[in-house]
């Protein structure tokens, strides 16, 4: 049996650098404002915004799809993570990911139970990144075909 194909999809480096820089500015500005104006409501709002901003930034930096040693995919989306096995997935395909009016497209996993599961790391807008999207789709479908047991005739 051939070795399982490894998958590692992440946001482009430029976007990860942008999110990292935004987080540094966010924490710096809110931290400074919270320290300088540390009375009552300002302190509470400052701390809440720091926590929320850091949580959102952390989740954005963690967006990705990676395969593990067991041959399953770990999908890290904005609102949670999910582990998908080859037996769970029928195919990967392009879809609107709920943002058709904004021109958002992305890869969706068509699951065997008839539902779809969007991969946030693949989301693109206004037709930008179409080559990357097609490359990711090919990589995921190759992973899906990679070690799936073939029916015996």
Reading the helices and strands in chain order gives: EHHEEEEEEH
Shape: elongated
Distance between the termini: 18 Å
Largest sheet: 4 strands, antiparallel
State the strand order across the main sheet.
1-2-3-4
DSSP strand count: 7
Strand portion: 25-35%
> Roughly how much helix do the residues carry, as a percent range?
40-55%
User: How big is the Rg?
Assistant: 20 Å
Distinct helical segment count: 3
- List the quaternary state of the chains: single chain
Describe the structure.
The protein has 153 residues and is an alpha+beta fold. Helices cover 42% and strands 26% of the residues. The protein contains three helices and seven strands. The protein has helices at 13-36, 40-62, 130-146; strands at residues 8-10, 64-67, 73-77, 80-84, 89-95, 105-111, 116-124. A four-stranded antiparallel β-sheet has the order 1-2-3-4. α1 (13-36) runs antiparallel to α2 (40-62). The two termini are 18 Å apart. Residues 148-153 have low confidence and may be disordered.
Q: Which short descriptors sum up this protein?
A:
153 residues; alpha+beta; four-stranded antiparallel sheet; three-stranded antiparallel sheet; 42% helix
Record the SSE blueprint:
Blueprint: E1 8-10, H1 13-36, H2 40-62, E2 64-67, E3 73-77, E4 80-84, E5 89-95, E6 105-111, E7 116-124, H3 130-146
Antiparallel strand pairs: 1-2, 2-3, 3-4, 5-6, 6-7
Helix pairs in contact: 1-2
Structure in a nutshell:
By secondary structure, the protein is α+β, with helices and mostly antiparallel strands. The chain is 42% helix and 26% strand.
């Amino acid at each position: 049996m051939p070795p399982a194909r490894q998958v590692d999809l992440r946001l482009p480096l430029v976007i990860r650098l942008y999110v990292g820089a935004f987080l540094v500015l966010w924490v710096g500005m809110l931290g400074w404002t919270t320290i300088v104006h540390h009375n009552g409501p300002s302190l509470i709002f400052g701390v809440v915004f720091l926590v929320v901003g850091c949580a959102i930034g952390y989740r954005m930096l963690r967006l990705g799809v990676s395969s593990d040693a067991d041959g399953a995919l770990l999908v890290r989306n904005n609102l949670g993570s999910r582990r998908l096995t080859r037996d769970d997935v029928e195919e990967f395909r392009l879809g609107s990911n709920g943002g058709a009016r904004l021109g958002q497209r992305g890869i969706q996993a068509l699951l065997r139970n008839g539902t779809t599961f969007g991969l946030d790391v693949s989301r693109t807008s206004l037709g930008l990144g179409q080559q990357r999207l097609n490359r990711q789709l090919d990589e995921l479908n190759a992973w899906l075909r990679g070690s799936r047991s073939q029916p015996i005739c």
